Amino acid sequence: MTQLSETDHKAQIAAMKAFDEQMPCVGIFWYDPSDNQLFGVRKKEVTPKMAEDAAVKGVPFINYPHLHRQIWAKEYFRAQATHEDTKFKGDYTQVPRGRVTWTIDKFIVLVGHWAEPIQEELSELIEQEFSLPYFEFVYDEHWDLGHGWSGDMK
After folding, report:
1. What are the phi and psi torsion angles at 115 (to 5°)?
2. Among candidates 144, 140, 69, 134, which has minimal Cα distance to 108?
3. Alpha-carbon gap, residue 6 to 52, rounded angstroms
4. Pairing of strands 37-45, 107-111
5. Contact 88, 75 (CB under 8 A)
6. Under a CB-based contact definition with an 8 Å cutoff, are residues 25 and 16 in contact?
7. Cβ proximity of 22 and 139 under 8 Å
8. How does pLDDT run across 51-70, given as a tens digit for each residue?
9. Are 23 and 45 in contact (CB under 8 A)?
């Protein structure tokens, strides 16, 4: 990965500020194919201070601090306690999911191959939900259905 010059980095931060009233966000999500919607979205704005601190420290990315399995377990048990109907049931790895992260020079969305046939529709949902000015999909087996850390839930 190449390092951005200080001038390029400042220009990128200015472009992010100008893009929208909301700063772009990193986070996690699940996708419900039955209604073509994201759910369980958790996100955090990428502030100029975060970006500058990451660049100064040489940190190669900014990521959302929680895992899918953590959020899924919390929501599952909350719904059980309140007898609420929820989408958070069963094995979290059997539901399409993804993660939005920033690698200092671009946003990437980590997803499984489940996303390939719906990439265009999914792009629109992600752009809106996470206020992203630009991003690219990165496909990885970890995000494929049935992969992940579900063994920890048993």
Report:
1. -85, -15
2. 134
3. 10
4. unpaired
5. yes
6. no
7. no
8. 788 878 888 889 999 999 99
9. yes
